[in-house]
Design brief:
The chain has a two-stranded antiparallel ribbon. The chain has two domains: about 1-60 and about 110-135, Arc Repressor Mutant, subunit A (Orthogonal Bundle); about 70-110. The chain has helices at about 10-20, 25-35, 60-70, 90-110, 110-115, 125-135; strands at about 40, 50. It has about 140 residues and is mainly alpha-helical. It starts with 11 loop residues before the first helix and ends with a helix. A hairpin with a 5-residue loop joins β1 (about 40) and β2 (about 50).
Amino acid sequence: MAEQADGSLVSFRQIAAIEAIPKDFLAKILRQLVEAGVVSSTRGARGGYCLARPASQISFLEVIEAVDGPIVLNLCLGENSPCDMSCDCSMLDVWRRAQAAMLDVFRTTSIADVRRSGQRTYGTPVDALLADALQ
């Protein structure tokens, strides 16, 4: 989608076919990206999807969190940590600093930055959708 001219639409079928993503799964991902304001959709025979803003203004973190929710490097850092030892954990500060560093990289890396890197990753269907958005 990022390769398209501003406002140019990519059809649902094109995305599904090119990226080999099951249509039900793709529909769920696109719905989440639209709800988060990352992607815009247009209905109708000539409808489709495009990035809601320029790729340089959409962070990698926005895309990930739109699909997966908040990112935590370790469960002890989550809102409802299941760990009873987090108060006494010698690793908690390490996990917090690593979390902050990771989020900073994701927050300051735009879709355009990733696209320029020329790296395409197809480990999961979400990776494939992101790769399509980054082209």
